[in-house]
């Protein structure tokens, strides 16, 4: 699994939730600050699951989702965003993201959303 978010606090929080258990079979393979970094990490690690913020510098989440799905068609992407702009979230889902969790989120809410996205495999 790879975590993509420009907030180090959110990257750390999602990592902690994933590594604290309850999500069998998920290993963290990378943390990225933006879409461009996510593409580089994905080329090297080929993650099966990604949490993706939408608003980031260099390359936003929608563009990154498009590129990741082109590279890894079976990848499962969960959008984790504070965006109140529903049209951007819809655009992310149209690009191939499989789920959405709004920030702020609870630990259990994130775990359930990740399990749902993984079941889509």
Task: Report what the structure shows.
47% of the residues lie in helices and 17% in strands. By secondary structure, the protein is α/β, with parallel strands linked by helices. It has a single domain (2-119), classed as Response regulator (Rossmann fold), CATH 3.40.50.2300. It has a five-stranded parallel sheet, sandwiched between helices. Strand 1 (2-4), helix 1 (8-19) and strand 2 form a beta-alpha-beta unit. Helix 2 (35-45) runs parallel beside helix 3 and helix 3 packs parallel to helix 4 (86-95). The longest helix has 13 residues, at 107-119. The protein is globular, with a radius of gyration of 13 Å. The model has no long low-confidence stretch (mean pLDDT 92).
